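Lab notebook, bench 4. Still working through the backlog of constructs that have no structural model yet. Next entry is a single chain of 78 residues. Request: give me the structure tokens for it.
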Amino acid sequence: RILMLCVDEAHRRKGVGTALINAFIKKFPKVGRVYLEVKITNRVAIKFYEKLGFHIVDFLPHFYTDGTDGYLMEKRLF
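Model written out:
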């Protein structure tokens, strides 16, 4: 499970986030699935994760401390 992924604005859209996700996956080659949560309002992050092969698998009502709903996303590795 990826708990948090943040890339400084100055370094976004340069492959840093993709490299971090790929390094995480490479570090744990026997893991069959990777999960993460994302705010439903964060369309940029959702599209980013979808490009990396993640799919929305669940809706998480009031998941965040500010009351915002979230999505559970999953990537199956094999």
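Notes after review: The chain has a mean pLDDT of 95. The helical segments are 16-27, 43-51. Flag for follow-up if needed.
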